[in-house]
Amino acid sequence: xxxxxxxxxxxxxxxxxxxxxxxxxxxxxxxxxxxxxxxxxxxxxxxxxxxxxxxxxxxxxxxxxxxxxxxxxxxxxxxxxxxxxxxxxxxxxxxxxxxxxxxxxxxxxxxxxxxxxxxxxxxxx
Length: 125
Description:
11 strands, about 45% strand, seven-stranded mixed sheet, mainly beta
């Protein structure tokens, strides 16, 4: 069974950058689309980006488009989320998730089968 572990979260000032990593074990990422989600306190989980198994198809939510970049290195079994121009409203727990399919569809959490434990990102001065 695919297992996912996020890393790279932390505290950053507004306008700063962070890169999250999602490392996989128990399977090769060549066969899984991977998404990033986030959940802020008191809010519903929000899908923010997805990358297909080959990396050829990428989706972004409007809230992060132009600021966040998803990428993957299947040789390292890792997916990344580069977050630039961070805002206080980006503060949340960030999760990576895997689908038992090679392509992305919508950024809907119930379409994903495997979840990491989450990484806290706090944007504050």
